[in-house]
């Protein structure tokens, strides 16, 4: 006969799987349970997926559980600021990165035979990207950059409804097995 601890373990396992799938779906849909993430403002990767440049953040979502609860988390240092949004301070190291990105973007400029810059679509895009990185590099150390909230972990009505459905289903199955075991 299954014990109450067995049913609790089954519920937690089922909830853990469902919640993991729903959190992963947030990355696919670029939203938090239907609330879209703010789009990028700068020209860098403007039309590409949000928060999945390398996929590290998406893959870093882990979970742990004990007898009564499940905790979802990421151990990446930038995970919290992406999930909650907030301000970060520009450091000297960040400025070096911004300058490196600027030089990388300007290295792709093509010139015509007369020495003037080409006006191709790619060239215009590179110019916008280079200007963005230059503006970032010219920020003073200590200035703040605002990171918009792009939540991917947390509670929501949809998740709560899914958890309730799992609990009801698992308890019904448990009661049915007890009922079947009691029948003579």
Order of helices and strands: HEEHEEHEHHEH
Order of strands in the sheet with most strands: 1-2
- Report the helical percentage: 40-55%
Alpha-carbon distance between the termini?
Answer: 15 Å
Rough outline: elongated
Q: Provide the gyration radius in Å.
A: 25 Å
Summarize the entry for a quick read.
With 184 residues, the chain is mainly α. The protein has helices at residues 4-29, 56-59, 79-84, 92-106, 121-137, 157-182; strands at 31-32, 35-36, 62-65, 70-73, 86-89, 144-147. The strands form three sheets. It has a two-stranded antiparallel sheet with strand order 1-2. A two-stranded antiparallel sheet has the order 3-4. The protein has a two-stranded antiparallel sheet with strand order 5-6.
